[in-house]
Amino acid sequence: MSVYLDFNATTPLAECVMEAMTNVMKTAWANPSSAHSYGKEAKKVVSDAREWVAKSLGCAEISEIVFTSGGTESNNTVIHSAVEYYHSTEFVVNDGDKKIKDLPCDDEKRLPHIVTSSIEHPSIDSYLAHLESSNLITVSRVHPSPLHGCVMPEDVVAAITPHTCLVTIMLANNETGVLQPIGDIVRSVRERANADGHQHNSGSKVLFHSDACQAMGKVVVDVQALGVDFLTIGGHKFYGPRYGAMFISSGTPFSPLLFGAMQERGLRPGTENTIMIAGMGEACRLVVENLDAYALHMKEMKSYLLEQLQKTFGKDQIAVNGVVGNASVLPNTLNFSLLCSDLPAIAILNKSKGFCVSVGSACHTFDIVNGGEAESASKVLLACGVDKATARKAMRWSVGRDTTKEEVDMAIAELKRIVSTE
Question: Active-site residues: which are they?
Fold first, then answer.
């Protein structure tokens, strides 16, 4: 049986999450919007789950949580909402001592502007690219610093314009595991905006979003400490179902992507998927109660993994990708290239019978396997300054809550077998 070391791609349902979802299927299957007793029971399931999600993210109010179908919908919705907000608001642009009041939709030069990074998940980058190619927005993509391994606040500040409506930068990169200094970025941009007057004439600020799908369940995610207006998570990254949730800070302007009835206060209409929501709530309860223990175990397993790789192949033959300087990294993620092998990473994966890992993100792996170039290099790693030869050999090994040293040993033994027979 293969050793599964691809927990950044997806995780299995925790046993108690499965039990919670099964119980709802049997006992709380009614429509939560119904006024009768069955509906009220289902509504309580949704309310209880929302409370656990809010608690796991450090929300000030339970109502700041909106359930969605997943991370992709959530991320697309935030971008859509920010663009709608821009078009509904007059801007005041400082031009020296003069203030020019204008409607941004009047001139293509005044399109909404979004700042992001060059290492985002496709659910952010692809949607931005679509809007950009349709001449609906302009985009600035900030690269990670080659000295620090992460996006630097001063580089984001430098990208801000009077027409910036959104900054969207992920909390943890899904390929390298590097954490981005979101709190510092938010503070720096807001200080600059207040000083320069780059804000809406209504006095509102540039909106901030962070995709925290990969960080949730591995590190503390506290929306108040980060200072963001939006934050998005996906349950399947932390032993929950393939479902999503958005944090929308109280008072933040918001335009829904979908229209219908008034479920989720009209912010995300559609009959609530009570089963999935129950699973999200239970998965978040586990994070609230056990995060420290989860993180410690994953950190120990990742350290053991790196030590054994270096011991087996030589320390100088293991290139850890994307992590430089004092960059903070997820406790479970190791992206590395095996320099002593000439095989591209995808070839190693295709030969493996003993372990399951990824080449970059799961989405990137899909592109390569389904018609992409066999020796393609991850765009994320190239943006992080990794050379193409090293990047094409890169593999992402990500441990989980229950990974053992024995499993790590088995996976490395299989990797050694593949390399020895090339």
Answer: 363
